Amino acid sequence: MENENIIMDFERRKRCAIEEAVFCEFKTPDQLEQILTLAKQNNKTLLFTRLNQEKFFMLSKHWQTTLTYHPVARCAVLGELPKLTNEAPPLIAIVSAGSSDASVCHEALLTLNYHGIAADLFQDIGVAGLWRLLDKLPQLQQYSIIIAVAGMEAALPTVLAGLVDAPIIAVPTSIGYGISVGGNVALQSCLSSCAGGVMTVNIDNGYGSACAAIKIYKKIVNRS
Amino acid sequence: MENENIIMDFERRKRCAIEEAVFCEFKTPDQLEQILTLAKQNNKTLLFTRLNQEKFFMLSKHWQTTLTYHPVARCAVLGELPKLTNEAPPLIAIVSAGSSDASVCHEALLTLNYHGIAADLFQDIGVAGLWRLLDKLPQLQQYSIIIAVAGMEAALPTVLAGLVDAPIIAVPTSIGYGISVGGNVALQSCLSSCAGGVMTVNIDNGYGSACAAIKIYKKIVNRS
Amino acid sequence: MENENIIMDFERRKRCAIEEAVFCEFKTPDQLEQILTLAKQNNKTLLFTRLNQEKFFMLSKHWQTTLTYHPVARCAVLGELPKLTNEAPPLIAIVSAGSSDASVCHEALLTLNYHGIAADLFQDIGVAGLWRLLDKLPQLQQYSIIIAVAGMEAALPTVLAGLVDAPIIAVPTSIGYGISVGGNVALQSCLSSCAGGVMTVNIDNGYGSACAAIKIYKKIVNRS
Amino acid sequence: MENENIIMDFERRKRCAIEEAVFCEFKTPDQLEQILTLAKQNNKTLLFTRLNQEKFFMLSKHWQTTLTYHPVARCAVLGELPKLTNEAPPLIAIVSAGSSDASVCHEALLTLNYHGIAADLFQDIGVAGLWRLLDKLPQLQQYSIIIAVAGMEAALPTVLAGLVDAPIIAVPTSIGYGISVGGNVALQSCLSSCAGGVMTVNIDNGYGSACAAIKIYKKIVNRS
Amino acid sequence: MENENIIMDFERRKRCAIEEAVFCEFKTPDQLEQILTLAKQNNKTLLFTRLNQEKFFMLSKHWQTTLTYHPVARCAVLGELPKLTNEAPPLIAIVSAGSSDASVCHEALLTLNYHGIAADLFQDIGVAGLWRLLDKLPQLQQYSIIIAVAGMEAALPTVLAGLVDAPIIAVPTSIGYGISVGGNVALQSCLSSCAGGVMTVNIDNGYGSACAAIKIYKKIVNRS
Amino acid sequence: MENENIIMDFERRKRCAIEEAVFCEFKTPDQLEQILTLAKQNNKTLLFTRLNQEKFFMLSKHWQTTLTYHPVARCAVLGELPKLTNEAPPLIAIVSAGSSDASVCHEALLTLNYHGIAADLFQDIGVAGLWRLLDKLPQLQQYSIIIAVAGMEAALPTVLAGLVDAPIIAVPTSIGYGISVGGNVALQSCLSSCAGGVMTVNIDNGYGSACAAIKIYKKIVNRS
Amino acid sequence: MENENIIMDFERRKRCAIEEAVFCEFKTPDQLEQILTLAKQNNKTLLFTRLNQEKFFMLSKHWQTTLTYHPVARCAVLGELPKLTNEAPPLIAIVSAGSSDASVCHEALLTLNYHGIAADLFQDIGVAGLWRLLDKLPQLQQYSIIIAVAGMEAALPTVLAGLVDAPIIAVPTSIGYGISVGGNVALQSCLSSCAGGVMTVNIDNGYGSACAAIKIYKKIVNRS
Amino acid sequence: MENENIIMDFERRKRCAIEEAVFCEFKTPDQLEQILTLAKQNNKTLLFTRLNQEKFFMLSKHWQTTLTYHPVARCAVLGELPKLTNEAPPLIAIVSAGSSDASVCHEALLTLNYHGIAADLFQDIGVAGLWRLLDKLPQLQQYSIIIAVAGMEAALPTVLAGLVDAPIIAVPTSIGYGISVGGNVALQSCLSSCAGGVMTVNIDNGYGSACAAIKIYKKIVNRS
């Protein structure tokens, strides 16, 4: 009865293609340890997102050493990552506007890898220096799915969507200040994009963008 | 020199998989007629979205009879619709929460059809009467892409995303009043979804949801 | 004259069915001790809400040992809790979407108990894994009043209101990030519910939801 | 197949105590006539809310004469209203701050009557002239459920909740201008109430307040 | 030249009836010490507002001992307070809804006293327990100016304005949480008041309310 | 019983110095005629605010000829205006930034006159052409109360408050577009004023500014 | 005395380089005719902005024929436009993202021309079809000042600012719907631009962008 | 390969007149050191903005001693500042409303100096004490470009724009509280300015205002 305040959804991958992950930002270390125990008892791997270093170090030593912690992605993994798919190039690219967006990019990348899917990462190619994007364009045109990560005025997903034929999953980030603090301008800008085929997820939601990409990826791969 | 204030992007399909469409809400009848003339001269078909009946009837008789007008979708088409793909069932389903969302659903459907892609339509299966959704679930689980259209508190995309393995393109609608007038609550609710794999487009953006679906569709079909 | 800057409302239960409680978030430890002294002098029990651990430990040792502190609920009680009513099952259920909502649930539960009323608690049955809710549905249909606690897009109260005949008191929580940070999306979603019979209280207001439930409870019980 | 874009929920009363009603604001006259035909075929009564006079007069003559139209409430009823319960006084009071709130009050009253439940109506007793409320207080203290309707700064539900032991269902209205245009200040004021036991529904949602009251009413009456 | 980045307005009282005060929240201790030096050189008294204890203790010992610090008001005074006017009762009352509003009340009171004006203080008489306000009403009806301080839904200024003939200067406070966090609901509620004669100042602006009261006070007193 | 949905507050002047007025924006012509009849029966004069021409002309001919209509102020008066006070100059000035603010100025002026109080009007002296304000400054410095009416960025009340010793009642107006549409920027600007002694009322609330001025006026005059 | 409610600022050009213009949106035809009479008496030319056709046709025939009306710009001019400067190319370019932005472009162009300054106009080169902008880039790099007009997500000013060395005056437009309705997203996007040298004016403020350009233009030309 | 997540834009000055700067607020010390190493390898100078003292002291000792840190401006410079231009007076003035705005002023000044451009600084001349501004007016009228820095209600840019013929670059600051916390009121006030020729940059964006000024400066100087 001890853990009845937590009900894990271990069948989620079967039902809707993606694994349950544990969003740690509002959970106490106690709650996380209950979840870890439950997962271990069921012999499950598990992905922990939004787990900052402070909270990670509040876990007991046992769990600190059992988990693999990814500081840039602010994530931890219980168990081994699976072997990655080996399409060359991978079907998915993650593109970011600035180096401040690194956390979100790596959360997305790790989530993909956790599901066994490879992806390429292109950072710091925002449109204020357009040549950086145009330089990579021939490469970018080869992917089947693009996750575009950008803060501030978030023009990158729009410009990109006009240049490639892949669906764009836009991830606005909380990078900004003044009027754009917290990422709302970036979010609204992505949603207002005058270029077709841009879909948006919540601010900083690298995990969610990867989930969406996984669902699309599986439909592409399973069909073929 | 007459039309140099309008620059059509007739190569868009080649570049990024979707045709240019003309968003009519902020254009004058004069501007629309200039665009129609330009398209006709170039022997192009063209899709006009957000063209309400009042504005349609302000066009000259010539253009009124030349265009095919779709009143529920509030769209017009210059030229013939292409023959539809014949996957059975189609890869794409459009699902709506209430019958007030019909305009947005039909704008999405027509946009797909305009690109030669078939889709099935499931209307009025919002979660306040959950049995309506559960009744259709076995059918819904067969699609590769689902466009989920909902206003008010927009719980449908979230519930659906937990029940199927297809990517969900959520289209919040402006159906609502008081706190939810204009669709912002629906939009924010979709973006906040705690279910993985929900991607969101702008309020009432049936056209945009279809563009995204087309890009995904082509990646699925071309791969196989 | 010393305490004239505080005027306790000790007759509130007689007048409007619920006891005064002390909302501690904006009060200094000094003010709390004045209130405690005043209550003690009047031989009153008292409920303290939104009293986080940091502030609790800033009270003098005397009061720390006199009060009973409930860390999950972030509440303290001066005096004994009354004996609970023994309807079986209780008339009231508290339902939450995720385990991050535990504080709010326990604040509501403790407030009910402080007024001598029992309630059952169902945690972590949010709609992203709909089977969790459907599993509990036969049980949930037995209650007379349901307090539904949810953050993020807060679809739970809406789905629930379509499945049971009890009035739903929705408590949006501040669980969320990006667009839903602070709980405004959850709040607006509850208010926009397209299902009938959903009433909403302020974000994280477990105490207030319990007060409303108590007023309804007394009308039910006193009538019979 | 003709009406498959509309799925009526005729079993709603059995499942969750309240009848389905048709929210007309975003529906076309065509859609309303489809629904009327469907209801007639199934021999059902039906309540239509938010049906303004302009739209009512766009229905065919047949339906105009078949329906009973209530102009202040902006509602129409298909079929007969049931006989009302005869508790004396009724269990429910509807209270409003100003005479501008009349539409919302009557929408709530009609919804109650449509479900066979009587209620008393107290209008124009807002707190700017406090004597008006205090005059009625002995009467108001007799009810089991109070629906409190107020716009502008909406102080009425708060003052009332401190004076009676009944649960208060607050309905903020869109009466206001400048900062309070559209009713958001009234809504937020109700949600922020420092008095216990206030529950809030969406702006102008007289129908929803009645649904909530009905669910509470049935629990009171069925228990006794 | 050293202090040319600061230009004191020592003639303000002559020009517009109130002394310059130093708003400390965004100034560094260095800047405050420059201002103190400048005032001392000019032999001026000076009022420092929004000076929290942390910042006060970052001043040099010299200034800490020279200044008189008022912790509840979060203010400091350089020099002596003047002798107060001795109208009996004073012309001005400061009224607050809850004991959490004490800081704002005392900032207003100290500002009045700094200008040589007496005032009476009535705390914790918010409308959720209406008897507290009605008890004090005969006293309150004697004042010429009332500063009404309230957070949350801020119904106090509205109720008061309907009961007395004095102008009401409403000071919304940042006391609140969820929808009312930061005081915006209180502010908007004061501005939307349906009672005549309510004027509003910025959230927590005890100083500003006192300035306004001083300007009115001088017009009353100088005329007579 | 016919009019029991309207409760007039004919004793308001005695209780709180200002007459009840009828805010017409949300009332139907029917409701206005009921109020007129009630006032006539009680032999009362009455002020109607926010009564635009369209609605005025929807009243019966009888009432159109009985009332005196003021088109710029958008107000009507039942009965005679009283004889004005004859202080020279009057104690109150109404100052506006632009000629677009005329309606609000005249609503304030008429309200004062309706209470028998004279006032001077200075229009179109906004700070973008500062000489216009500085030209009038010697005159403006003579008043005891200034109502300052301004839209857009509303800098006028701030500049004025630094130049005169009278209390400033700021009335932001809805004059503006883009970011300042509806008057919220003007409102927020007034509330944020860094000049002491500015009090603010709701957007376009000429009536409310006059009520506040009347309460201050009476305290000044009655004291002397 | 008749016109004392209007004070024209005929010396503005001397004082701050730009002529006064009359913003017509909130002025009545009566007020406009008073202003026209005043200008005519003083033998002045005058620019009228935001004068839509409906209001223009409400002026007397005399003024309709005296004024030159520009329907796309929604402006009218009293008197002759001056001879334009003949730099080749002009120093100023006006660039727009879409043909829906034409009104704002022409308001800016006419304002420049009204001050005797020539400018070139590049319409419909938004970044969703990036080739349109890149095609014009060599031309655009020749200007000294660029006014960039864009709605929706307004990525154009950002992309442009990274490609040219001229200062960019961004004019967000109200072109948009859903989340971007009214132009707030465009505005916020311009303000958040991660490219240096972008300055922003209010939504749709073509006139204001031209005023700023004129001030810069004169400093460039007068210096040389 | 080590630094491929960072792509420096060292050719920015050639392309668009201003140097790349590094916005440090969202970068980790690790990222900053990677950038420093890259710049050093390329023998580049570099400007670091929004680098608070805490983060600066988290850099390695080597970089702390290599960089020149400017605490008021919260900036650091790698390499030497260039020799300043010697126009007398300089073409650019930076003007601020209050001494709390010092950080933003100095960020702008340092950015100009980093590009070799001199500027004069006028602090604490806000309009609440108008004489401070009028005193400096003859001096201020001599500049070609004015950067106006103001928080709270930000009336300074508007008043200034009506008094000088130079273009005004308004920088709203985050100085404010209550309704104006974070600087949004200041921003909106600048954008709503009824005075012509005011252009606005993001809140606290001293760097951006300087970039804009540099682009204008170069056009003025290069033309002459």
TrEMBL record, chains A, B, C, D, E, F, G, H:
Entry's Gene Ontology BP terms: 'de novo' IMP biosynthetic process
Gene Ontology MF terms in the entry: hydrolase activity
Domain PurE: 90-222
PANTHER family (UniProt xref): PHOSPHORIBOSYLAMINOIMIDAZOLE CARBOXYLASE-RELATED, SLL1489 PROTEIN
UniProt-recorded name of the protein: Nickel pincer cofactor biosynthesis protein LarB
One Pfam short name: AIRC
Organism: Entomomonas moraniae
SMART domains: AIRC (SM01001)
Gene3D superfamilies with a match to the protein in the record: 3.40.50.1970
